[in-house]
């Protein structure tokens, strides 16, 4: 009885520390429960994080491969209709160049009234040669013509008088024949003297160096006071009609695709201006050393077209339907050009190609691609055949294509 009273008294003094019927303390039990719940929550969070991070149902081998594959830009080029073009280099020249030299005996040059770059007409005097001696010869020969004409007139007068006397019997028929022969000989001497004068005058006229045809003087190689002759060579070079041309050097493969009449655009070196021309002759032979031939492209006159200058030509040669790739997609080695295409399981495959025309959009591939393939856009030099990549489709400008 006393015992129960004491217990109740103690409990009354400390109400917060009551025991249950089994003698268990209530406060420590709650703490343990809280700790267990917290540990269970932490375990659930960790399991969820591991599940989300590694992916539901993903195998470790597949995850490793996906993580190691590099993201590489690829392009599907398709096919494009391209205006065929052949690029060539060569020199400019006069289409018909006329070398002009001394046609006569020559002598000392007294006058050169033209300069290089002047336009001249056919027969225009380009240079005058001294003819003082020849002029005296003409004067002498002209006097001989007068003498011959006087003799001819006298012979004719004698014949006329004899014809009047023959009727009276004073002169025989034989005398008439002799006088007639004298008259005819005198007339012949007149013609000889006149021919000599004409010849001398013709020779003198050849002392003037004249233009054989209208055109542009390209070069003047004579000065007043210079002594020239038939062996002096060309004194002037003239482009007939001012017509120019480009002598385009082409490989025998390109030359085989060309024909007269094809249009061409010519750009002289050092100039941004282009000139339209037309092929008028394709070389019938190939140089055995260089394996090249010449296509002659006719051009109209322009001050920028200077004979002897260097120029580039773009020749239209029909149309071609082929894939076009940017230069960054094409690689090359000792065997030629190649590209990397995306094959099965996104592994790159090396493929040989043959390139063709170079355009503003890129380089045409005439063999090796259908156009539907996915071709590595760039960074192909860092790949190896069979390497796994993560292809990212882009357009020709390298911009990503959505979807």
UniProtKB/TrEMBL annotation:
It comes from the Bacteria. Residues 324-376 form the Multidrug resistance protein MdtA-like C-terminal permuted SH3 domain. Keywords: Membrane, Transmembrane, Transmembrane helix. GO terms for cellular component: efflux pump complex. Residues 106-239 form the CzcB-like barrel-sandwich hybrid domain. Pfam families: Beta-barrel_RND_2, BSH_CzcB, RND-MFP_C. The chain crosses the membrane at residues 32-52. One of its GO terms (molecular function) is efflux transmembrane transporter activity. Residues 1-24 are annotated as: Disordered. Residues 248-317 form the CusB-like beta-barrel domain. Belongs to the membrane fusion protein (MFP) (TC 8.A.1) family. This is Efflux RND transporter periplasmic adaptor subunit. It comes from Pontixanthobacter rizhaonensis.
